[in-house]
Structure formats: C-alpha cells, structure tokens
Amino acid sequence: MAxxxxxxxxxxxxxxxxxxxVHQKSNSAKRSKDKRQLKEQTRAQSRDWSSFLFPLILKxxxxx
Length: 64
Known about the structure:
By secondary structure, this protein is an all-alpha fold. It is about 55% helix and about 0% strand. The chain is built from one helix and no strands.
C-alpha cells in the first residue's frame, strides 16, 4: 500500500487554465478612453479660446 501512486487532479492541468499571461484592454475600453481624452482636450482648448475671445467680445459691444 505504501508504494501506490496518487492520482493527479485532472482539472489542475486543464488546457483552459493555461491561458494566462498579460491581460489586455477590450476594444470598447480603448474607445471609451479615447473619447474621454478627446473630450478633455476639446474642453481645455475651448477654455483657452474663451479667455482670449471674451475680452474682444466685450470691447466690440458698446455699453452706455
């Protein structure tokens, strides 16, 4: 009895479990990230332009 070989767990070496490695973002996650970055860039650009154009608009309006 002491020389019996113990059976291995058949699920421990399953091929489905060997697909580890580096995880990557899904395409939808990449698209949403790009959308957020684009929105932030446009907001920053509009803030820059509004600070430039606002004084010009006030000068063009004749206030009594």
